[in-house]
Structures are given as structure tokens and as C-alpha cells.
């Protein structure tokens, strides 16, 4: 049995982690094997890259192309050593961020060349696309206020509000251009309602859960 790659996307503070954990608990009650993972940081190499990208203070600004290449390196290792092997065993993989994050953050946010981003995404994934991408659409200011109330902000969360608005516009463009690949969920709603909507989407779009509609 082939597994499913389910990706969660959204701006900072959109609630991805919470919704992934709630979905994992539900899948467990159904007896469905799953794996929770994230980008960057889903592998041992990725954990170190995550520190470089988000946690370490630099004496000089991290070059934007270097940032892109580090995210791509993380993804390449993640796909080859975690995602593909677990898909082959039939697991549902719940992944916090994937290729659309790079398009939204480094493409729209940083303004880097989209053709280069597309090529690097293709190389890093070997063409592996998600079976379903859930976009938790939330107001940028609300998301950032959630983050500020939780803990110290990382390097990406400390970016300007204009940057985060560009990222949000990126997600809007992706969803509009690829409505069958990325499904919008209103992240401004109560957590339970957001989760209910996500579960319905899974039931409607994945063959493994289609029996639950009967």
C-alpha cells in the first residue's frame, strides 16, 4: 500500500503545528499509520540546517540565495531519507511545509527567480509532489501576534510586516493557480472547526478514508 504525503502550509502563526497534532490523534483512532515531520528539520542534517536558517544570529545578513540553497539541501535529504521510505511503507506523512513554502517565502517574499526555485524544488524532490496540501489561511497580523505571545521570535518571524504580506500574496497566487493541489482552510476560525474542515477534506480527497463517508 502506498502512503499519502499531506502538507500543511501557511504564514507564521497559522496553526499548522496544532492542526497537524490534532489530525495525527484522529488518524491514530482510525488505526492509520502516520508520521509527523517538518521542513526544515525533519532529519539529523535538517536539524542543523534549521539552526543555521532560523536560530543563529549572524554578524552579517544571510545571503538570500544561500538561504534558498540551504532550504533546498534540507528538502533533498528529507525526501530521500524520510518521506520516500515512509511513503513506501504506506504511512500517512503529515509534513509541516514543503515546496510551496519555498515559492511563497523565497519567491514572493524574497523576490528570487521563480524559475531557479522551480528547478531546485524539482531537483530536491525528484518530482515528488504532495497528495494533498492544506493551506491554513490566516490574517498576517493575527498570526504574528500569536507568535509574539508564545516565545522568542526566530529569524523568519522577525522579518518585516511587508515581507509577511508578500508571502501571504504568494500563497494566494499558488492556491488560485493550482486549486486542486492546494486547498484553502480558513485558519481564523476556532481550532475545532478548522480541524473539522481538514478532516472533511481528507475524507473527500484520499481513497484510504473514503469509506468513512458511508
Automatic annotation (TrEMBL):
Top-rank lineage group of the source organism: Bacteria
Keywords, ordered alphabetically: ATP-binding, Kinase, Nucleotide biosynthesis, Nucleotide-binding, Transferase
Molecular function (Gene Ontology), one example: ATP binding
Gene Ontology annotations of biological process type: dTDP biosynthetic process; dTTP biosynthetic process; dUDP biosynthetic process
Pfam families, per database record: Thymidylate_kin
UniProt-listed Enzyme Commission number(s): 2.7.4.9
Enzyme kind, highest EC tier: transferase
Gene Ontology annotations for the cellular component aspect, listed alphabetically: cytosol
Gene3D superfamilies: P-loop containing nucleotide triphosphate hydrolases
Domain Thymidylate kinase-like positions: 8-198
CDD domains registered for this protein in UniProt: TMPK
Binding site for ATP: 10-17
Family: Belongs to the thymidylate kinase family.
Function: Phosphorylation of dTMP to form dTDP in both de novo and salvage pathways of dTTP synthesis.
Name the record gives this protein: Thymidylate kinase
Species the sequence originates in: Cylindrospermopsis raciborskii CENA302
